[in-house]
Amino acid sequence: MSSEPKFIVLLGPPGAGKGTQAALLQETLGVPHVASGDLFREHLLNKTKFGRQVVTYIERGELVPDDLTTAMVMERLSQSDCQHGALLDGFPRTIGQAMALDQALSERGQRICRVLSIVVPDEVLVERLSGRRVCRSCGAVYHVIFNPPHQDGRCDRCGGELYQRDDDRPGTVRYRLKVYWEQTSPLIEYYKQRGMLTEINGDQPIEKVEEELKAAVTCDGRG
Ligand code: ADP
Ligand code: AMP
Questions:
Q1: Residue 134 counted as domain residue
Q2: 45-62 per-position pLDDT tens digit
Q3: Identified catalytic residue from 41, 111, 165, 174
Q4: Edge-to-edge order in the sheet of strand 132-135
């Protein structure tokens, strides 16, 4: 694999398995997992001023405005552990964010080397999101049926308490999928036209999706 920084985008609707796969891929790739949703939730948890600015959007399942989101993610990407790249999960989510990311990376002499689009039918996504449980301490992701912890309600990795995200309730889930189709799905065409996109069938067992993503990750050439 080339030595240029590996900025890889995991694209896909809520529930496609981006976070699950990023946790598995980050070791292989040797770059950190940067999830915009996790960054926002950290602000909410710490009750920061920024958190108060964005909380309503997140509770409603709406997208946070591009300028706020892009500034937060670019600040994260400027930290030293991202100098060799990052596995981006949940960002970009609009054409505006994608353009801002291209611009910011090119100012640093960097670029996205591949966009991996995880494709999953909507009815499967609803089932996945409503059964998702997340560890309060380490952020590990489970599913009550598809990927259950060994002990009910407890994280296998750190023993932390598992909880259900407020925005994983059925009403908000449907709305988030609508937002995805309206505002985020145009990115598929955006990256396809630039020859950067690889589509992966995400409606398969976690290990199989992982295997296909690993095979598709390549930073050689301009894609
Ligand atoms: P995203 O980050 O794209 O929103 P997650 O990685 O959080 O999605 O996965 C959503 C839910 O689906 C979680 O409960 C996770 O355990 C489950 N999940 C992820 N990948 C699969 C898969 N391939 N098959 C079944 N369930 C999955
Ligand atoms: P996620 O954890 O990726 O499902 O994101 C949770 C919520 O955070 C979303 O429903 C949005 O409200 C907000 N969010 C996360 N990433 C973005 C983004 N790139 N642009 C705008 N809002 C975002």
A1: no
A2: 999 999 999 999 999 999
A3: 165
A4: 141-143, 132-135, 162-163
**Active-site residue, 157 included:** no
- Within a domain: 155: no
Token representation of residue 26: 């980050």
- Tens digit of each residue's pLDDT (9 = 90 or more) over 168-215: 998 899 999 999 999 999 999 999 999 999 999 999 999 999 999 999
Active-site residue flag, 111: no
Question: Is residue 47 in a domain?
Answer: yes
Ligand nearest to the CA of 14: 1
Domain count, the chain: 1
This prediction has a pTM of 0.95
CATH number for the domain harbouring residue 84 = 3.40.50.300
The catalytic position among 93, 114, 128, 133 is 93
36 Cα–ligand 2 center, Å: 6
- Mutation test residue for ligand 1: of 26, 143, 144, 213, the one with most atoms within 8 Å of CB: 143
Q: Is 128 a catalytic residue?
A: no
